[in-house]
Amino acid sequence: MLAIQRAIRRIHISVDAPRLTRFSLDAPKKVDLEYANGCKFSLSAEFLRIHSPAADGKIRSIGGEKVIFGRRHVGIMSAEPVGNYGVRIIFDDLHKTGIYSWDYFYYLGSNKFSFMRNYIKTLKKHGLSRDPAKRK
Q: What is the pTM of this model?
């Protein structure tokens, strides 16, 4: 299943998205984007963190499925330009290796609701939560 999702992701990302016309970081909560075709997306820090394009040591592997959990309150500290094609987002959980291309943002924004729905289903399936673990 994961291999199929990765293949689909590569296909969608390889399709040229419309030109980005506006990028706005509303730290720590979200990123707002507008594209030349009129599409506008507001992507939360949690959504971007769980869909980071980077490999991450804070991912839990359950039955071969990679699941990031407990990121409901994660924040964005900053976004650094990477060439002309995207940004590196630095999150307050110190994750900073993901480079988000403008095309990847478009892909995420275009699929935001189905991605969040599937994410919540996966968490429920494994008894996990969007909320961080309580400290003892």
A: 0.81
